[in-house]
Amino acid sequence: MTQIMLSLDIESLEIISQGIDNQGNIILEVRSKKSHSTCHKCGKPATKRHGTAPKVKIRHLPILDTPVYLVIEPIRYQCEHCDDHPTTTEQYDWCDRRSTITKGLEKYLMRSLIHSTVQDVSRKEGVGAPSSCLDKKLEKRLSSIFRHNSGLKKQYHQMSQKLF
Ligand SMILES: [Zn+2]
Fold it and tell me: Which of 42, 75, 94 is the last residue of a domain?
């Protein structure tokens, strides 16, 4: 099979390996190009590598209608500014803390939402738990987006009445 080098559209990541799991999903092992984190205690850059956190699997935009998952082993960094050298796990600009989907996928789902319901979108995209965390998250995001776009305000209001 010919290997196609896939592009992630995420500047801060590089792909280490790519494969297909037994459910036919595209699995991309990635790592961050960044070499520091921000100390959770003092807010200064923590630059000394100190082990890794357990691997996480984060869903990204589909490619050719195939689900794509990013697998990353977050790096822990130690702060040399603080006396007790606390460690902070790296954070990403492409994914919110503890989220299981990338910001790119979030945006895509929201675009899909404009002409359908949360239930439709989650069924179509196979994204779980439409009535719990996704709803809340989407509601928050959508309201901030629509707040800055008066033309869409009315549409959002009608949609939110229907959805949330
Ligand atoms: Zn610190």
Answer: 94
